[in-house]
Structures are given as C-alpha cells and as structure tokens.
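hey m, so remember when u said the tokens were messed up on ur end? i reran from scratch. heres the input so u can diff it against urs
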Amino acid sequence: MTLFTKLTTKIILLCCLPLILGMGYSQSFAQNNAGAGNLLDRTISLRSGTEPLENIISQLTEQLAIGFSYDNSLKSKLQQPITLGSGQRPVKALLDEVLIPNGLSFRVISNQLVITESKLPSAKVLKGSISGYLIGMPENIPLGFVVVSLPQQKKTVLSKEDGSFYFGDLEEGEVTIQVSCMGYESVTVKTGVNAGENPPIRIQLDSKMNELEGVTISGIRLGEVKALSQMQNAENIKYVMSQEQIERFPDLTVGESLQRVPGVAVGYSYGIPRDVIIRGLGQGLSSVTMNGNRLPSTGAGSRTTDLNGILANSIESIEVIKTLTPDRDADGTGGAVNIVTKSPKINERMVDAKVSGGYNGLLGKGTYDLGLTYGERKNKWSYLAGASYSRNWRAEDRVDKSYSTYSVNEEDRVLLSNIDLDGYEIKRDNLALNGEIKYYASERSTFYLRASYNKYYEIQNRLERIINIRSYETESRLKDVRITQSGNWRDYHRDLVQASIGGMQFFKDWKLDYDLTYSLGKYDQPTYYSAAFVRNGLQGTLDLGDPKAPQVNFTQENPYDPTEYTTSRYINRHDSSMDRDGQYSINLQKTIKLGEVTGNLKFGSRGKYKYNDRFRNYFQHDLINGQFLLSDYLSTYQKDDHYLGAYQMFNFPEAKSMERYYQENPELFKVNDNYTRQNTDPDSFTGNEYLLAYYAMTELNYKKLKVITGLRYESTGFKYNGNQVNFDDTGNYVNTVSVDTDKSFDGFFPSLNLKLAVTPHTNLRAAVTRSLARPSYYDLVPWEEVETNRLRISKGNPDLVQATSVNYDLLFEHYFKSVGLLSGGVFQKNLKNYIFDTSFTQEGGTYDGYLVRQTINGADALARGFEFAWQQQLTFLPGVWNGLGVYANFTYVYSKFEVPGENSTRKVKLPEMRPHVGNVSLSYEKYGFSGRVSMYFYGTFNSELSEDPNNDLLEKGRHQLDFSASQKLTDRISLFVGINNITNQPISDVFRDGRPQNDAYYSRWGNLGLRFKTY
C-alpha cells in the first residue's frame, strides 16, 4: 500500500467519523421512538377550538390510522380542555404542544401512540426553540443572509441561503422577533415559545419598491439584495457577486465575471480573462476554492487554476475574500476566490434553462451556449443536477517584435531583429456537470453529497511567419533576411473534478461541521504537430512608418514562393500534468455568553495529501536524407487582412499532413536526442505534498462591536523527484541524472477582524492578518539543465521557502436602504521572501561565468493602495429615471521591491501589478427590461523584468467596453443579448524605453439567446 493510499485512508476514516456519529445519533433517535419512522414528521391539520385533550388525540390518531393507549391514572389529565389554533404542523410538534404543558410525554410502539407521565421534575424550567423562513414579497422568494434578532434575549442569527433561521435554548413565553433587510420593510413579530421544537414561522417582508411603477425587487435587484446582505453581515471584508448579477454582464466564464469585482484585475489568454490578480498580486499569491475547498491546478507545474475552464452559468455565486479568518486557508495574501455551486431553496423547484447563439467577428464563425439545471427541495431531501455546454471560437492577430545589437557604419545599434506574425484560429469547448444531494434529518442535522466536473477542451491552428533580420547594410536597408513559415496544430484539455461529502450537526449549543473532498486537476496536450520551412538570403528595405506593424519590402519578386522553402525536420510532442489530492476539514463551534458579551468559540483542522506529476515528451524527427518542400505540404489557410489589414498571410505548411507522412514512413527519420532530452527530461517530475492545519478562534459581540480573532498553524511538507540534464561543450547530450528533495515549512498565522456597526446600515471594518504564498510545484522540483556550449544553466530551486505577508486593512461601507453600497478603504501588504524569476551570472566553481536562470526568494516587497466602490439603484429619482443604476469601482495600488540589476540592485514595481484597475457600468431596469453599458479598465504595468531596465517588458493600459441587456417576455422567459469589446481594444506590450514588442487584436464577439427560470 502506497503512502498516498495509507494517508488517504486515514483522512477518509477521520472525516467519516463525524458522519458516522451523526448517523448514529439519528438512528438512535428513531430507535427510541420504536419504529416511528416518518410518522412523527408528517404534517397534519386538526380542527381549531377548545376540546378535551383526549378528543384532540383521538382526531390525530384517526388521521394517522393508529391506535393510542394510556394508564387510567392519567384519565383526569386527558380531560383537561385544550385550545388548539388553526394551521398545519408536524405530528411531533403538535404532540409536544398539547402534552408537555400537561406533564405528559409519548412514545410510538407497534403502531400505537402510548401516552405516559412526563419524568421531568415540575420545578425544571422547560426550554424551547424557534425556527422559520424569511420570504420576500410579492415575488415569494427566500431571503438569505439577513439578520434575525431576539432583542429581549440579546440573540442574533443570520438566515441561511434558503431564508431559514433557528434559535434554540429559549425559555417558555412570548418573544419578539425583529427582521431588517435592505430593499424591504422592516418587520417585528411576536410569537409564543413552548417547550421543545415549535412549528416553523413564515415571516413575510414587503418590498419597498412596490410604489415605484415598473420597479420590483427581482432579477439583478434580488441578486444584489442577497449579495449585499451577505457582505454587510460578513465577519470579514469580502465582495459577493450573485448569479443574478453575473447574468446581467455578457460574461461566459468565471474569469470574465471576476473582472467586474472591486480590486480585481485579470490576466488574458487570447483575449479572454484567465488569471485573477487581487489588489495587485498575481494568482500565485492568492487562492481559488470551490465551496471552501482549494481547487487543484490545471496548469503545467503551477498552482493556478485556469478560470477559463469554469462556466459562469454553472455556479450560484462568487465570493472574493480580502481579509482572512483563522478558519480559512492561510494561502491568500492577495485574497481568496470562493466559487459557490447551486443548491435549491426550501419548497423550491428550480428549473434554469438557457440557449444562445453568437458570433466571433475576427473569424466570422458562430458560437453557441446551452445550459439546464433542475433541482428541488422537499421536506427531508433536496437534489440538483445541472449541465452546461459552450462552443466558443476565438482568434488572435498578433505582431511580435524583438531587437538585437547590430554594427552599422562601425557603430553598435539596437535595431529590430525579428517580426513575428501569428494568426490563431481556436475552437474552445466547455462542459460543466454538477450535482448535489442533501438530507435534512432535522433542523439541527444535515448531510450532503456534491460533485462537479468542468472540462475545457481547445484545438488551436496557429500559422506563424518569422522575418529574421540577420544583418543591416544601413538602418533601413537589409542585406540578409531569413523567413520561416510555420504551421502548428495542437489540442489540449484542462479537466477539473471535485467531489465532497459532509454535513452539519448540532449537539445542544455545539455545532459540528465536516467535509471530505477529492479533487483532480489535469492538463493534457495529447496532440502537438509543428512544421517550419525556411528561406534564406533575402534582401529588402525596412519601413517603420507604423512601428507596431513594421513592413519589409523585399527586392525578390516572390519572397513567399513555396518552392523555395525547405526543411529537414518535423516536431511532435505530448505534455501532461496531473494534480490530485484528498482533503478533510472539521470545525467545532460553541455559543458563549459572558455578561453582555455574546459570541462563539470555534476550533478546527484541515488536512490534505497531494500527488502531482508532469510528463513531457518532445521529439524532433530529422530526415536521414533529403529535404521537404513547402509546396508539397501547403495549408488552405489564407488571410488578407491580418492585423487590421497590415499583412497578407498565405503559403503556410499543414502540420497534420507532416504528421501523417511521418507515421507512414518512420524509417526515413532519426530522432534528434539533443532536442528531445533538452525539452523532455528537465520538465518531467513526480512529487507529493501534505498539509496539516489547526486553528482556534472566537467571535465576540458587544453592543455594536464585533471582534473576530484567533490563530492558525499550518505545516506543509513536500517530496519531489526531478532530472538534471547535462550537455557537453559542443551542445551534445551527455546524460540525465535523477535528483530528489524532501523538505517542509510551517508557521503561525494570527488574524484580527473588527466590525463596528456605526448605524444599522453603516460599518467600519479593520483587520490585521498574516498570510502565506507557496512556490509553484515546478519551481520546487530539483531539475537542472546545463548547456555548456551556451554557458547557460536553467534550474529549479528546492531551497525556496513560502513567502509570508502581514496585511493591514481599513474599510468604510454604507448600505443603502433602497439596495446599494458605497464603500472605500485602504490596505497595505508587507511581504517577506517574495518569490520571483531572475537570472544571474555564476561566480566561481565548475560553472563559473554561466548565466543561471532560476526562481528565488527575493527581498521584502510592499503593496499598498486604496479602493472605492459605488453601486446603487437610483430609485429616489422621479418617473422613468428611477430605473437607472450605477455600478462603479476603482482600485489604486503602489508597490515596490528590489531586484538585481546590471550594475546594482534597483527598486521596481511588482510584476503583474496593475497600478489602477476599475469598472464603470450604467444600467437601466424597469418593466422587465435590464440593460447596461460596462467598461473595465486597467493601467500600464510590469509584465516581465530584465537585468537591463530598458528591456523590462510593460503591458500597456487598456479599457474594454461591453453591452448587455435582457427583456422579460413572460414571468419566466427572458430574451438576452451581449456584445464584448465593442471598440476592438488591442493588448499591447512595450519595452521600458518605448520600443513596441507585442500587439494583438481580437475584434468583437457577442451572443443572443433565451433563458427560462422558475426562481
């Protein structure tokens, strides 16, 4: 049995223990009621009025078709008059209501209801409970994350997502319930508490917007109510985007949705958001979870999850957590993104169906998007199943420029060396499957089983033309130019699987919740064919009239004649990476009261065992004799308007036909070992990691102040096996040596979150937290590639340690009664052992003078800034104007850290840190119409650092304009439309001295569709 199997078995047993105990508790309860089964849970209705207790029991047993018996000594008690109110209630609740006050109790034995005298001492104070549901009217919708309070008892709870709430340990008598929710009228309800559990209470809240013609709390307003209520009552600083809000933007994936969140920027892949940057810190310094469990990697050797792979249609909400509490993983220095999957609400049948078609303007090809979710919540069970599928065509027109030093007129000049024209045609398929089953054993006990599968499959056809300037005669006259015409065909999969089992159980004033999760992340590139044909010795002149799109005017009549392009090699490869883990979490919470201070204590643990590997197989097949001609392997690809018409693209090789030729004639080729070993062995590794964490925390409430504080301890260990690859001074492969490392690191992570409710709608928050960021898997692997002929070494770094940060936050937030938010705050992050890529010259030893490329821990780094957010439905405006709404946010970040330079250490801004990022959106919603124009923008930032500051690469600031709208056709059917990148904004990179490097266009894309929803 492997170490992974043993440890996984232990984790499963540890996590299932609470589940077994909970099931044992429920089974014991059923046995004590002698086979009562579902009898006591049945809901019945008896006639109201005043009657002897015996008559009421007779009515009840008649409806249940059972008998009842009692001792004759109880005859007098059964003749006591009982006043019974109208309404339906569970059998057990009814029996408790009429028997307990009269000193009686009951058991169910052999289909008989047996009445006995209660064993409770008469002097004992009986305890009861209150449960209920909050319903928003007139739409009859559950209201989650709303504060429900008992002012006389000084007790407060937050309603669950389905609108339910529960108070236990209450003395008999009358209580007052107060409920306040933005967008609804406040409610005060008086009710009686009897011993035991009382029938659930339905509390209705009326919309404040009923008096506004055409404006209701539905659609995005309902989404905002839920999200803003959750934010207002959260114990830390977070932002919540609900499903309804996500639907109102023209966004297909979670990555696209995240660009709308305050303080969040995104990194692009072919014009679509992929990586998340929170408060200026890249995804490697943040974490992505689903339902609170860390998602595995879907990249090759990194810890990041490609958010292109999760369809927004398949989720319930997105939480961006900006300050950590001890019960959350500590690896969230930038922040943590938590994706919440769908779950049906009480007495709800959920049907959500979506169908849409779209168009990509750069390719001129159609897209489509389908989705169906069905779920239902009954008395004891709920279930949900959902499926979404998307076919999305993407394209990119790109011009890359690179530079070298040339001698012109005996003077060294930095001049253009390569013009790299890339045309991408990409077909993306996304599939999302998710399901959930929940069992509600009682108000105090819940069990669940949920699973999700997200598959992201991409096929790329890439055509590339590289114009390589090998020498200059003058600054504009080129005397030796080489052109490479390349064809590249590849596909890859990114799979994401997560399955969880867990539950929640109350034991008196203790709450236990537990979870066991299996996760799998996979990156697999099974197909990669590449063919490159070359023509040398061309001449021409260089035209830099448009430096972004330089032109070469060749003196040859037909510089792209396919009969003049040859090659003697063909490349194919396979690349795969797997990230698997089993993880558990267990949390125990107890309510406390110390005088006027109320709150809770919470303890818990999380464990994880992870296995990670990567296998890369690169092969260069060289012809033993002869050469290939491009004219024999031409692709049909042709594009006359590449990069806004600046270039004509034609005469490219068809890489798939080269693969067929190789498969049919393998004996005509030999494998180039130097290429294969250099590109295969250093990138292949296996390894495992473990995580053990424990924490203790408390939440204390005194008047308007809430204090959440505690301490978390995390220990991480890893063992990785990699390869050291050596080449001789002529560049020929020598050998591959297996190397391994075994290491661990740990730390304590305290945190303090304060929330002061200045008014019922205004909070002042402050936080001091400590967090960490772990190195990527591949960076920890002890791989090494030594290229003697190039005097260059590339290597991993098993000596890396986790980066840590002390974080300070201060935030003001005001929630408008009419639905909205105004917030502003400042933050600072002091990072130690910041992890970054660098290169340096080796001094001394065997490799003296070699250039070494490696990821290292650097000097301390600093990131500080402020953020502002305003979102509001302007319902106070008169007439048609009260349908207007504003959604705006802005974040500014300043950062610095020290990196080695050519002559001395220099201070720079953190890579990937956008100095400012924000959104501006103007919406209009009335009479079932919802429309918005949105702009996402960010400022110029460092994308790559170099020893020479002039060669630092910067990505230029950008703004993207989008439009989305929907119109209700019926109460359940809506027509929607979305258009992205209306102004066709490019993505551009420049060197620090102003030289253009990369410029890419993506055109516009959009969709039109119908949606059917029952909720």
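this time it looks ok to me. The chain is about 10% helix and 60% strand. if urs says something different then somethings off w ur setup not the seq
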